[in-house]
# Entry
Amino acid sequence: MIEVKELHKQFGKVTALDGLSFSAPEGQITGLLGPNGAGKTTCLRTIYGLLKPDSGQAFIDGIDAGQQPLEARRNIGIFPDKFGLYERLTAREQVAYFAALHGLEGEAGDQATEAALQRLDMLEIADRRATGFSQGQRMKVALAQAIVHRPKHLILDEPSRGLDVMSTRILRELLRELRAQGTSILFSSHVMQEVAALCDQVVVVAKGKVAAQGTTQELCELTGESALEEAFVKIIGTDEGIAA
Amino acid sequence: MTNPVKIVWRKELKDAIRDKRSVMAAMSYAFFGPLLMAVAFYVMISQLTDPSDVEIDIKGAEHAPALIEHLNSNGIVQREKAWAAGQQPITLEISEKWAEDLAIAMPAQVTLTADFSATKQRGDIRRIERAIESYAKQIAYIRLQMRGLDPRVVRPIDMVRHDTATKGSRAAILMGSVLIFILLSVFFSGMNVAIDISAGERERNSLELLLSQPLNAHQLVLGKALAASSFAIFGGVLSVILIPIIFRFLPLHNIGISLSLDWTMMVLIVLMLVPLALFATSLQLFVSFRAKSFKEAQTYISFLLMLPMLAVFGVEFARLKNPVLYYLPLTGQHQALLDIIKGESLQWLPMGISALATLLVSWLLIRFIGRMLASEKVVFGL
# Structure
């Protein structure tokens, strides 16, 4: 379970996080929905232990990411918003590198890598260098890197940005499968359709704090609107920075 | 579990070896540097030891056949070809009263007309002057002997030139410039790799993900520094091996220089280059981790390359002789290399201390870069 408690973070005069609290339980896909600049990325970076919050804590299965960042990171898989690949390494080598960084080496590393590549149906491109990979193939490599160590938590930052239809389908399928296996999945997005299609629980973030929380249906009921889009606009009070 | 440093090192090395640009950069400097040097030396040596005849215009040769014969045997001959454009003619004119003056023991006159400031002709002019002086001396001795005097009375002082310059120390002047190449090879060879694994990593948007993996920032930096240093050492080893081979083809013995580096010395030089390589790459990483792109890092690093050049050339030309130089990073290795080339006895303690100082500074730099990468400002540019 990923738990965020009362996060505060200030960059100069800008308040990025203003008492953000939510949790992403096991076996669920939690969507972090908010307009650009709402504090989504800052929140995720705090969970990775890359940013130190001014106050508050982020827990991965009870491990404080601020205190023990390495321990916390061992238990999460990260699918970043911008994934740069090492152009001169093959897909297999890239995935194996991340497996090794998570302590999976030698035979265990080979097995984990093979399993991840197989899972994403990318054995055909496994031994090709990343130069010339299509956007979809690149996404697969990044996904394989994120799940190679079989993390109990998966965090995706704006995952479907710039993906084609096929890639998006593969991604959604994988997420549903991981959910069934009991992974807690945290999914940040500013695209409403995506969140509505995938998430069990939606956390609407605006100005660094939770504006509303619940299932898609609950949010609609809460605002008395029939569509999530209208509900969302009503919750954050503006339609700036949201994509339909 | 394997140390993450080793994992990073292995991956970066594999990545870099596949980068043709990095490999070419490492090799070409080590290869072309000494080669360029060799060509320069070759030209210099052939100018210094020019054995060809000096061809000049001689006027009035018919007045003094004996002098002409003496000049010819000293390699000074009548010019047949015209003077090249831009070259000042050298003319030796023998007075028509030559035989007459000699007969009555009056100074006979020869006139040497030339541009005495022309550097290229200085050697030729000197040879002509010397040939005429020696001819005059011969005649003087004969005249004294004919008058029953010991010719030694006009040579009150006998100056014996005793050259203490060993072959090695004369070589040192020349080899000083070669040393600079060896030292700089370490800075040049790992440069491309250092930029690629720092600014390049940031540019291709993989730095943040890498920092979110379960390893410390300083482990990451150390792994990267070791990978770039491996390249730097590779370039250093290559130049240490190539320089003696290339110089074997130069006629260094013609100017009284012998350069012999046996393999123990070569191993010693390589050992000295190891801490220096780490120092060079951690400096480069420090600079290029701050850059946002490959291009930006290249700009910074080209300024950084001035540092070793200034240190080495500065010491060389200012003829600095301060014992502190033996203990510092970079200058310590430079001094030790000078001693090796000159064939002087090695100062082991300063060598050891400078190696340790170099390692220490590199280690501090790596820790500092690690701290820098843990900072929000540097990573996210906040």
Summary: The interface with chain A takes residues 1-2, 4, 7-8, 11, 14-15, 18-19, 201, 203-206, 208-209, 211-216, 376, 379-380, 382 of chain B (CB under 8 Å).
